[in-house]
Amino acid sequence: MSRSRARTLGAFFVLTAAVAAVVFARVNASGEATASALVPEPEPGASADGARTDSAVPAKPRRQIVPDVEVVVNIPSGRLELVQGDSVVQSYPVSVGSARYPTPTGDFLLATVIWNPWWTPPPGSAWARNRERTPPGPGNPMGRVKLHMDELIYIHGTNSEGRLGAPASHGCIRMSNADVVDLAKRLTRIADPSVEDARLDRLAAPGKNERHTVMTRSIRMRVTYDVARLRGDRLHVYPDVYGKAGSYGAHVRRELARGGVDTAQVPAVAMQRLRASGSARGGASFALADVPYLQPLPPAEPRETGPRVLGTAVASDAPPQAPADTIVIPAAAPEPAPPADSIVITDDQP
User: Fold this and answer.
1) Domain limits at 4?
2) C-alpha to C-alpha distances, 209 to 46, 57, 161, 253, nearest whole angstrom
3) Are strands 173-174 and 154-156 parallel, antiparallel or unpaired?
């Protein structure tokens, strides 16, 4: 072998060894390559301009999970809570799936965050037939951020916030855009406290390019279906939005018993009041000490919109049909002064 050829081969081996050293330096002791929390990861089918040709594939759960932190959604309550230890750090109104497209209950892991996402119609979904893919922007059904719960189930923003608090989605959990951005930032900071605010602000800024990141640690998520829940010394009751609770009273009594209330001493009218109050959007809350003394709800006051019928309030825009023996008083007509010996009848008497 010539001396020049030997020098060439020697240089090649030195270069190969240097490259190998760099590669092995980036591998941790368990044999897995290390990754930055906020280094955007390429998505299948993504083009250079950020356009996507198919739905994002969620990141596989990380081995490390943040302890003592979880995201909790109780479907009947219409709220998402960020819980740290025994404290609710933040609570947000959400829209869960409708009864036709219910949100699944269970345990999940949140790791993938997609900022300014594209929306791709779910394959095989009749409700999305003939819908077009939508780029990031004000008209995007995914809003500003989406977080993967499962392959096709997300927490995401929405461009229609009027139904928040009610079951209205096709299975996903919708939040206002401001809230979902706040949640994504909070979770990313919890997963990696070293993340800089400036970096998060750049990721969360509105734009036309989708940004796909994976948190260094996963966050637990729990989706439940509880029509009654005890928290401290208060009982919270919620509507049975999917009609799957079974015996509503049994759920209420179980939570009351957990709070030390003798359910045998709770009268039927109190149980009826609890159920009626829980049927409203967002439910209702009661102090445990007050539960045995609850009385039925007062009748709802009708709104007065038409001419007054003596002794009644009309809750309709249509002219009322007065009974034959009543006196109709036109709203604009002046009332004459009654004779001195007459009895005055007014609208406000029982």
Assistant:
1) 1-34
2) 11, 17, 23, 51
3) parallel
* Residues 319, 251 share a domain: no
Name, in order, each residue with C-beta under 8 angstroms of 170's C-beta and a sequence gap of 6 or more. 97, 98, 101, 122, 125, 127
User: Which two three-digit tokens encode residue 135?
Assistant: 């780029």
CATH of the domain at 125: 2.40.440.10
Query: Considering the entire predicted model, what is its pTM?
Result: 0.67
Is the same domain home to 94 and 212?
yes
Are 18 and 120 part of one and the same domain?
Answer: no
Task: Specify the residue for token string 């590669």.
Answer: 23
List C-alpha distances in Å: 80 to 95, 156, 159, 173, 213. 9, 12, 18, 9, 22
- How far is 292 from 290, CA to CA, in rounded Å? 6
Asked if residue 204 belongs to a domain, the reply is yes
Render each residue's pLDDT in the chain as its tens digit; 350 residues. 555 555 555 555 545 555 444 444 433 333 333 333 444 443 433 433 333 434 455 555 446 999 999 999 999 999 999 999 989 999 999 999 988 889 999 999 999 999 998 777 777 666 666 777 777 888 788 889 999 987 778 899 987 777 787 788 888 999 999 999 999 999 999 999 999 999 999 998 888 888 989 999 999 999 999 999 999 999 999 999 999 888 888 999 999 999 988 888 888 989 989 989 888 888 999 998 899 888 877 776 665 554 444 344 444 444 545 545 544 445 444 445 444 443 333 332 22
Look at residue 210 and tell me if it is in a domain: yes
Same domain, 18 and 104: no
Of 124, 147, 127, residue with least CA distance to 71: 147
Q: Angle of helix 268-278 relative to helix 248-258, nearest 10 degrees?
A: 110
d(CA 262, CA 249): 14
Same domain? 98 vs 184: yes
Check whether residue 123 and residue 8 sit in a common domain: no
Question: Can you tell me the distance from the alpha carbon of 47 to that of 19, in angstroms, rounded to the nearest whole number?
Answer: 29
Calpha distance 112→184 (Å, rounded) = 10
